[in-house]
């Protein structure tokens, strides 16, 4: 691996993540910042001098999609890949596919354009850059990560964020998510991973450390929820008021989603 790219200021001044990446992957930051999307969605262009893949086209924002096309330049786009189907990652896929003349490949058939999907174990290439598909359900039922062996880097979508922790969406499952984190942690050590390239937030240069922290955080939250129940909390909202009391209230709806997922998980134990 030739090292991580140093982030640069985006042309719209929206953040210092635009242009970050690795030898084979570069980020084009979408202009959709929010408490849920952090600085915005990271759209990744992966490949070489002749052909590339676009991972997570981002929202249906014409200016962003044209910037992605400009970054692609004269190279041929062999496919658009989705880490999952949430609109901040997939909303612009159809428009970008038409603009670039490329299919959209995803686990969920509803988000595909073309005959080919994506499943765990698939290998997709652009020039001599190999992308290996890793099934990581949990944040959503259709979440995938993409391993770049040449860069020793993993594109993580919303399974691991560049800052903070992800929520378990209504179409996700905490038990699946914990198993996915364990799988990524084992892989990070076995493959000597050098970087995580998230769907939101900055590149993370310590995959094993980040994944250890993610796993520990989930276990800690589960214990906090058990304690809130022992103290009399009767539903997800009351648990949020106890456990997330110091968190900005604008994030409480997302916290309530995660608490609901954790309550469902605790019922299975």
What does this structure look like?
It is a single chain. The protein is α/β, with parallel strands linked by helices. The protein has a domain at 25-206: Ribonuclease Z/Hydroxyacylglutathione hydrolase-like (Metallo-beta-lactamase, Chain A, 4-Layer Sandwich), CATH 3.60.15. The protein is built from 7 helices and 10 strands. The chain has helices at 62-72, 87-90, 93-100, 174-190, 207-230, 236-243, 252-267, and strands spanning 25-29, 42-47, 51-55, 76-81, 104-105, 123-126, 129-135, 144-148, 153-157, 195-198. The strands form 2 sheets. The protein has a 5-stranded mixed sheet with strand order 1-2-3-4-5. It has a 5-stranded mixed sheet with strand order 6-7-8-9-10, with no helix packed on it. Helix 4 runs antiparallel to helix 5 (207-230). The longest helix has 24 residues, at 207-230. It starts with 24 loop residues before the first strand and ends with a helix. The relative contact order is 0.12. The model is unreliable at 6-15 (pLDDT under 50).
């Amino acid at each position: 691996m030739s090292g991580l790219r140093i982030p640069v200021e985006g042309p719209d001044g929206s953040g210092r993540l635009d242009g970050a990446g690795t030898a084979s992957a570069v980020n084009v930051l979408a202009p959709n910042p929010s408490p849920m999307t952090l600085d915005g969605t990271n759209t990744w262009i992966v490949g070489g001098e002749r052909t590339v893949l676009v991972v997570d086209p981002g929202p249906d924002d014409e200016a962003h999609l044209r910037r992605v096309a400009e970054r692609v330049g004269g190279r041929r786009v062999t496919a658009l890949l989705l880490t999952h189907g949430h609109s901040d990652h997939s909303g612009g896929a159809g428009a970008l596919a038409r603009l670039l003349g490329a299919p959209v490949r995803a686990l969920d058939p509803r988000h595909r354009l073309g005959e080919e999907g994506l499943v765990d174990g698939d290998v997709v290439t652009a020039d001599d850059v190999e992308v290996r598909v890793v099934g990581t359900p949990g944040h959503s039922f259709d979440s995938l990560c993409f391993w770049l062996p040449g860069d020793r880097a993993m594109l993580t979508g919303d399974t691991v964020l560049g800052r903070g922790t992800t929520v378990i969406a209504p179409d996700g499952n905490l038990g699946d998510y914990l198993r996915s984190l364990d799988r990524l942690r084992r892989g990070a050590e076995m493959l000597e991973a050098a970087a995580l390239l998230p769907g939101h937030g900055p590149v993370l240069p310590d995959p094993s450390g980040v994944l250890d922290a993610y796993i520990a955080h989930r276990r800690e939250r589960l214990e906090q929820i058990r304690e809130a129940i022992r103290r009399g909390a009767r539903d997800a909202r009351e648990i949020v008021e106890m456990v997330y009391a110091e968190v900005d209230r604008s994030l409480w709806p997302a916290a309530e989603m995660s608490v609901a997922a954790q309550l469902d998980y605790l019922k299975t134990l």
